[in-house]
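Subject: ABC-type transport auxiliary lipoprotein component domain-containing protein

B.,
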Amino acid sequence: MTRSAALLAFVLMSGCAAPPMQFYTLGAPAIAQNSGTLPASAPVLNVSHVTLPDYLDSQDILIRHGDQLDRSPNGRWGSRLSQGVTDLLAAHLGQDWPGYVVTTQPLAETPALRLAVNISRLDLDSSGQGALTADWALIPSDEHQPVQRGRGSFIAQGAVTTDSGKVALTRTLVEQLAARIASTSPRP
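Prediction pasted inline below.
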């Protein structure tokens, strides 16, 4: 009898299990880069690891309710958010600047250009409003060339009732940043 009761309890508890954990990326690997072959002398653009506020740089998918941050109960980023943002920026710049070899990896030699990005704000609120504020610097290896600096604020609206909606809204904001950097920075 106790065995039957234990089995019944197990079956009842398994029916109450939480949904499985889902992991999300910003989709950077799906973006084709440098479809043609580049000469060995092609300049290199190194995208440094993007910095984010500490409370955002985790695997938690967050939504803001005023001063409160709520974490998704069953959705997580596949890596720290800063890594996903870095990869997505590099992927877009690889498309937008086909004459450059764009990488996020450390290099043995000095790259022709280095991109440093600091995101000071990346918030999604419960109404579906997303906002991103960032500063960036494009730093040439030639010390006699000027550093090109930029700043931008971006907003977008989207559905945030699901984790996939939050991911899509975050991707939209980062893509707006990538487009601005690509349009205001020098090309080879």
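The two ends are 78 Å apart (CA to CA).

T.
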